[in-house]
Amino acid sequence: KHLTHEADSKLGSLCPTTVKVRFCELKWANVADSRFVCRVDPSDVGKRPQFNYIYGSFSSSNLPPVESDMDLQSLYTLLIVVARNRTQITYGELSQRYHEQMGDWHEPHGSWDEPLGDVNTALHAAGLPPLSAVVVLQDSREPGRRFWGSSPNVPDLPGDQVARIAAYGELLGQVHDAPWPATLP
């Protein structure tokens, strides 16, 4: 989630660019540029996150680890319905549906990259295409930049728009045509 304008102003000149934070049930969340750690109150899980404390000057070597608390089987089950229906789902819709199914809220921006990559990696080992190709940005109707190269069955981001659209169309077609097993392999 992008920090709110209020939180940006608290960072002052220490952070001239927008910082993204991945929220989860753990007390700590890594910040994209690894210069800050934000403490998140676990009692706020399921609510729109608010910053309680902001600490500066942490190096990536001493950041507390952030582990995904998402149920990959439930995520997989949700996504195969989308794939079997030959449709797409936005990150926001994914957050909402996962919340409805599991009771856990995960921000649409940034919190899905790792779990979707984990699902794709497991599927690659079973010879299946990258299921997360059905998860797209609302405006472009394409996956976010971190989709590309996220697992062995997803190539790196193509260098030009035509190649990117062609590669994505091919992957999405493979996902829509795949014989998805009921459980994550």
Q: How are the SSEs ordered, and which strands pair?
A:
Elements (H helix, E strand, L loop, with lengths): L4 H7 L16 E3 L5 E4 L13 E4 L15 H13 L4 E2 H12 L10 H13 L9 E2 L24 H17 L8
Parallel strand pairs: 4-5
Antiparallel strand pairs: 1-2, 2-3
List the total number of helices. 5
Shape: globular
Mean pLDDT, as a whole number? Answer: 75
The first-to-last residue Cα distance is: 30 Å
Radius of gyration of CA atoms, rounded to a whole number: 17 Å
Q: Which structural class do the helices and strands define?
A: mainly alpha
Which sequence of SSEs, written as H and E, runs from N to C?
HEEEHEHHEH
Strand content: 5-15%
Biggest beta-sheet profile: 3 strands, antiparallel
Q: Low-confidence stretches at least 5 residues in length (pLDDT < 50)?
A: 1-42, 44-67
Helical percent range? 25-40%
What is the tally of beta strands? 5
Strand line-up of the largest beta sheet: 1-2-3
Question: Your description of this structure?
Answer:
The chain is mainly alpha-helical. It is 34% helix and 8% strand. It has helices at residues 5-11, 72-84, 91-102, 113-125, 161-177, and strands at 28-30, 36-39, 53-56, 89-90, 135-136. Strands 1-2-3 form a 3-stranded antiparallel sheet, with no helix packed on it. It has a two-stranded parallel ribbon with strand order 4-5. It is globular. It starts with a helix and ends in an 8-residue tail after the last helix.
